[in-house]
Design a protein that fits this description.
about 230 residues; alpha/beta; Rossmann fold; eight-stranded mixed β-sheet; 6 helices; about 25% strand; globular; Dienelactone hydrolase family protein; Dienelactn_hydro; AB_hydrolase_fold; hydrolase activity; hydrolase
Length: about 230
């Protein structure tokens, strides 16, 4: 097991209480962004992403989909992901959107969503479920299973590694073609990197600081332009 999940806030979630990690910008207010964890849980890296977004002027919230559990062990992460009830994840993510939209520090009537690996898939599912309330979806190296991508009403910017053996580029391109065919503004960027190239904890040895920096700059600009 890794250190415990990074938590500093709670919010309502379908009649229950969910936990998460929330940061506000130095100015005290800004556009809202949901951050969705990888299969490792709400780790220090995910909390760092929240803090990085706050430093860029956003109000960022990462819901803890695993209820406090984290790991640095890939087989354990696989088990935790497989045992996550999809309906609970959807409920907590929708609750995070509700919490940000209603938060006094959030200046935007819509939110953005950014996620990594498992969270990248959840970001696209959330955008499909929430319609216009998610005005910008930014998946990093993840695709959903069973989501109706044609239901997305916001804009999408994807970041995927060309050497990613777990998320084939053919499937990525097909998904983005489906979205574009439905009139979704879907921007796809690929990088000469592997899976999890943005994760600077480098748990699987694929972190690429140069490509991560390029992708992050694009993602921040996209969120700034589309969350309004």
């Amino acid at each position: 097991m890794a250190d415990g999940a990074q938590q500093n806030t709670t919010f309502p979630s379908g009649g229950t209480t969910a936990h998460g990690y929330l940061e506000l910008p130095e100015s005290g207010s800004g556009q809202g962004v949901v951050v969705v964890q990888e299969w490792w849980g709400l780790t220090t890296h995910v909390a760092d992403v929240v803090r990085r977004l706050a430093a860029e002027g956003f109000v960022a919230l990462a819901p803890d989909l695993y209820g406090g559990a984290t790991t640095h062990d890939a087989p354990e992460a696989m088990r935790m992901m497989q045992e996550l009830p999809p309906e609970r994840a959807a409920r907590d993510l929708a609750g995070a959107v509700d919490h940000l939209v209603g938060h006094p520090a959030v200046t935007s009537p819509t939110v953005g969503a950014i996620g990594f690996c498992m969270g990248g898939g959840f970001v696209l599912s959330l955008a499909a479920q929430q319609g216009e309330r998610v005005s910008a979806a930014v998946p990093f190296y993840g695709l959903p299973q069973g989501a109706d991508l044609t239901a997305i009403r916001g804009a999408v910017q994807g970041h995927y590694g060309e050497q990613d053996g777990s998320v084939p580029l053919d499937a990525v391109r097909e998904a983005f073609a489906t979205m574009r065919g439905a009139g979704v503004e879907a921007e796809l960027h690929t990088y000469p990197a592997g899976h999890a190239f943005y994760n600077d904890e480098d748990l699987i040895g694929t972190y690429d600081p140069e490509q991560a920096g390029i992708a992050w700059g694009r993602a921040v600009a996209f969120l700034r332009d589309h969350v309004r």
